[in-house]
């Protein structure tokens, strides 16, 4: 019999604040929010420092919501954390997170999907593998999208890479090639320039002479 549907993990130290902070300008307030995990079952191995959640896993941390069939969290002897979210066969693991925006500006969110989502706590790199897709939405409308076999984002260097490949093939992209859609950002309004003063009049001492 699986354990109770709602699992409140007691060993949250295995999921440090950035260990599930997913790509690109994620809301900084999420780092200080508690982690909640729901699953059909959980297995914790104290010897190997691993926690495996299975069955419609939902991870929530502030505005971040991650969904997968299995989420495996491991802590290495050096203290770094590693997390892997795996989708059910024929499906994709997904996540959504709100991005930081200035007050008064439209709400932006990041949506991602892949067969496998990995986080490396030592390198601070998030990797989406297999039919990977990453989208930025503004007020719920698609603004930017990247598609490929592998999408990796280094949260330290802000380097973002997309790789193509056969495993990235979809019905709309049978070749698995990298596809990127970018919406131009509106230019910031420039400050109005002060009108130039007309040249001062000069009075010639005598008619027909130059001043």
Please explain how this structure is put together.
There is one protein chain. The chain has strands spanning 6-7, 35-38, 41-45, 50-61, 64-75, 81-86, 93-98, 108-114, 116-120, 125-138, 141-154, 159-163, 179-181. By secondary structure, the chain is mainly β. Strands 5-6-9-10-8-7 form a six-stranded antiparallel beta barrel. The N and C termini lie far apart (104 Å).
Describe the SSE topology.
Layout lengths: L5 E2 L27 E4 L2 E5 L4 E12 L2 E12 L5 E6 L6 E6 L9 E7 L1 E5 L4 E14 L2 E14 L4 E5 L15 E3 L30
Antiparallel strand pairs: 1-2, 2-4, 3-4, 4-5, 5-6, 5-7, 6-9, 7-8, 8-10, 9-10, 10-11, 11-12, 11-13
The arrangement of helices and strands along the chain is EEEEEEEEEEEEE
Number of helices, counting only DSSP H or I runs of 4 residues or more: 0
The assigned structural class equals mainly beta
Percent of residues in beta strands? over 45%
Mean pLDDT: 75
The rounded Rg comes to: 26 Å
Biggest sheet: strand arrangement = 5-6-9-10-8-7
Distance between the termini: 104 Å
Any low-confidence stretches, pLDDT <50, length ≥5? 1-25
Number of strands: 13
Helix content: under 10%
Main beta-sheet annotation: 6 strands, antiparallel, barrel
Please state the overall shape, judged from the principal axes of the Cα atoms. globular
């Amino acid at each position: 019999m699986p354990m109770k549907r709602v699992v409140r993990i007691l060993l949250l130290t295995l999921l440090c604040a950035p260990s599930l902070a997913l790509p690109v300008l994620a809301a900084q307030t999420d780092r200080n929010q508690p982690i909640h995990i729901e699953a059909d079952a959980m297995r914790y191995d104290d010897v190997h420092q691993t926690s495996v959640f299975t069955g419609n896993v939902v991870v929530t941390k502030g505005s971040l919501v991650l969904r997968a069939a299995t989420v495996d969290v491991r802590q290495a002897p050096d203290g770094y954390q590693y997390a892997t979210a795996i989708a059910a066969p024929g499906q994709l693991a997904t996540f959504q997170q709100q991005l930081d925006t200035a007050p008064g500006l439209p709400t932006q969110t990041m949506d991602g999907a892949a067969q496998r989502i990995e986080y490396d706590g030592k390198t601070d790199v998030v990797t989406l593998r297999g039919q990977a897709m990453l989208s930025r939405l503004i007020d719920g409308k698609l603004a930017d999208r990247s598609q490929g076999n592998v999408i990796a984002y280094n949260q330290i260097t802000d380097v973002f890479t997309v790789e193509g490949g056969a495993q990235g093939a979809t019905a709309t992209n049978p070749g698995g090639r990298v596809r990127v859609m970018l919406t131009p950002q509106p230019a910031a309004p420039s400050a109005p320039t002060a009108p130039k003063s007309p040249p001062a009049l000069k009075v010639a001492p005598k008619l027909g002479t130059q001043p």
